[in-house]
Amino acid sequence: MALLKCENLTLGYDGVEILSGLSFEIEKGDYLCIVGENGSGKTTLMKTILGLRAPREGSVTFGEGLKKTDVGYLPQQSDFQRDFPASVREIVLSGCQNRMGLRPFYGKKEKALALENIEKMRLSDLKARSYRELSGGQQQRVLLARALCAAREILLLDEPVAGLDPRVTEEMYSIIDELNKRDKMTIIMISHDIRAALRYSNKILHIGSEVFFGTTEEYLESREMNTLGGHGNG
Amino acid sequence: MADLLSKVGLYLSYPFVQYALIVGVLISLCSSLLGVTLVLKRFSFIGDGLSHVAFGAMSIAAVLKLSNDMPLTLLITIICAVLLLRTGQNTKIKGDASIAMISVGALAVGYLLMNIFEPSGNISGDVCSTLFGSTSILTLSELDVWLCVILSIIVAAVFIFFYNKIFSVTFDESFAEATGTRASLYNLLIAVVIAVIIVLAMNLVGSLLISALVIFPALSAMRVFKSFKSVTVCSAALSVGCSLSGILLSVAFETPVGSTIVAVDIAVFFVFMLLGKLKR
Predict the structure, then answer these.
(1) Which pTM was predicted?
(2) What is the ipTM of this complex?
(3) Choosing among B40, B94, B163, B164, which should be mutated to test the A contact, i.e. which has the most A CBs within 10 A?
(4) What total number of domains does chain B contain?
(5) Is A160 on the interface with B (CB under 8 A)?
(6) Which of A86, A104, B145, B239 is in Cβ range 3.0-4.6 Å of B217 for a Cys bridge?
(7) Considering only CA atoms, which of A41, A39, A10 is closest in space to residue A205?
(8) For B90-122, what is each residue's pLDDT tens digit?
(9) What is the DSSP secondary-structure string of A125-167?
């Protein structure tokens, strides 16, 4: 049984169908990149996997005992978050919320976990700082630390490097790669950057005018065979 | 000056002034708690819209000649709050437009009803005091005070108990929802609590000025403080301080209670804006 199975998904919003008949499976430890043109439905697909919106048809099933509370998510930042008055520590701790049930206050375990992920993201010096004073890359690392507090099995990342400069982008990619290789975290990442997708992932899902799902090697072969495809916008 | 102090001292010995102070402190504490969330979620105007709804509901209660208008007002306002927050998410009419529609509609219908059925001889006086709260805080009955005390305690308790959940839903609703927190449930909770606060606060400052009570302390605190907790604590303290001094000033200078409180809030906001600039 796969960790995550999408069967015959049809996605759309406002009555417009953007994607139909999509099926794929993800195994434990996979690093899947979702690529495709703007507006092809990458974010919608991710939100469907997360249960934030219902598919118009088809189903998303979690396997191997994966629960909704094992999932970590790094959404695209919204504008209002950028000037939100909250300390780094408060935000990272809020990632532990899915372990709380009805308990109102964080205990020692959650605080330790938050601290661990703050250190892992090399944010120790910044933990008392306000989120709105940080640079874009630092903010992104805070949100990743929060996602890690929530994630026990799988991490979904929606364009984690959007708006970051090249050096910080590389740093972000290597952090994510380390999470996959060393911590055995399953990764699903939306990316515009096709080169990074080819370099780090082991599976690729291309959606848009053509749909492809397979290993990264297969994707490379199919791209060489089919030079007509208009991908490579990264 | 000594004259003024003895005047205030004299007033303080009257139970209605004591009631006003107790209720004022509790209401301003509650209204500031969710202010931070409302401002950050870009919901500032929901408070305004709901207060107009509460005005409409109050006039219905007046027309029906209910002896205590609070329960009906509370019910109608809660229903509208739930509807407004729900429409904010995914509908054809965008959030701000539906708020404007409901609030202005309720204001007009309320005033119309008051004029058609003429529940009392002094309509313009009644309307004026519901809108600006000029006298109602000083005419509270013992029952009103108790109701206020109980509701305020409930609001504060709910806020403290759900503080961490409210924080995560305020900061990032989709993350909370995606990782298994029922964000829609907490949004509902926020809506109900806002409605309760609005109805409570109508007694203090009147329905046109409620937003000020909700927003100013939060905005002032956000100029200076940096973590969610410190902003929340500071805005609660500011709100209570401003209301207390507002009530006392209004007693001393015989100005309307509601607008005096708001004036103090505005003054404090400018002070904090300066402080924020200096700190940077």
Answers:
(1) 0.85
(2) 0.85
(3) B164
(4) 1
(5) no
(6) B239
(7) A41
(8) 555 566 777 788 888 988 988 888 888 876 667
(9) GGTTSBGGGS-HHHHHHHHHHHHHHH-SSEEEEESTTTT--HH
